[in-house]
Amino acid sequence: MQILEGNLIAFDIDSLENLNLSESEYITKYMGDKYRPMSFLLPITFAYMTIFVTGIIGNILTCIIMRKLSTTQTPTNYYLFNLAVSDLLLLILGVPNELMIFWEKYPWTLGLSICKLRAYVSETSSYVSVLMIVTFSLERYLAICHPFQLYAKSGMKRPVRFIVSAWLLALVCALPFGIYTTVNYLEYPAQSGRPSEKSAFCAMLLHSIPVFPLYELSCFMFFLVPMVYIAVVYVKISLRIRRNNLKHNNVNSSVHGDRHAQTRKAVRLLSAVVIAFFMCWAPFHIQRILYVYQIPLLEEIDEWLFPIAGLLYYFSCTVNPILYCIMSKKYRTEFKRILGCSEIPINMETHL
Fold this sequence. Notes:
Layout: E1 2-4, E2 8-10, H1 23-31, H2 38-68, H3 75-103, H4 111-145, H5 147-152, H6 157-173, H7 175-180, E3 182-186, E4 201-203, H8 214-246, H9 253-292, H10 297-325, H11 329-339
Parallel strand pairs: 2-3
Antiparallel strand pairs: 1-2, 3-4
């Protein structure tokens, strides 16, 4: 296979068979079937739509609640609001496009501008989501492990600077994805130099990736480093909670038991945050690395790795409001009020 003019894919004619193929047959030979079987489409569509609906509702509720709590401005409110906004953008721009490709693999009909914009904004949103998780984790760490240091840094200038810096960093780092993603075509007829409009698809192919390790840097900066960071931070938080509870060993056994129950629940929640981050983001980056290095295994597993990685990638937008907002007592109280539920005490509140 050879690449012509950046986004035109041409195949060498190695037999007379190619000369006798119609355009549709030629595209199918090299790009696979245009439509997937219903046995695949129905369950994957149901899963994506469930994630989409629950994620949209959860993140919109988060935005509404954070706005209602604006009278008591806290860094946590700011981080959760921006996390919800980035997750909303990712869901709105990503899920419909994924489903469209599942139902009809080609051609791409939305034009070059939408192709580039979708790639750029989606990548930016995913970066912001990760950075908001990191800054939120830092805020929890300071509040529990270094409360006096956090008090000394009180005020909204610091979180606003963090948030603005996070968006700017994400916008800059995602720029190559907007630049190098394009609409690609198969050449048809063979050796004609003409693109087949029926074969159009939106992607950043290997030959379009710049010379610097774009996917590797993305994986390192926005998965590996944040993963290690939040794991270390939440281990330190868990150890601090345990140490704090050991100081109360001289109280009566019932209170002592309650505190141990609170500790276990807090540690489980913190562990769930780290596990959820890894499970949601690891398959996505693994698939990218497999693609970049053209590992032979990719062809065998891509049919199921691609949809599973996508599901987990977007599932992070649904699980974020649950895991991170559950750490905020004010959020829980307001959420229950909106739903018309009575306030039910939650043991973890004293810790988180």
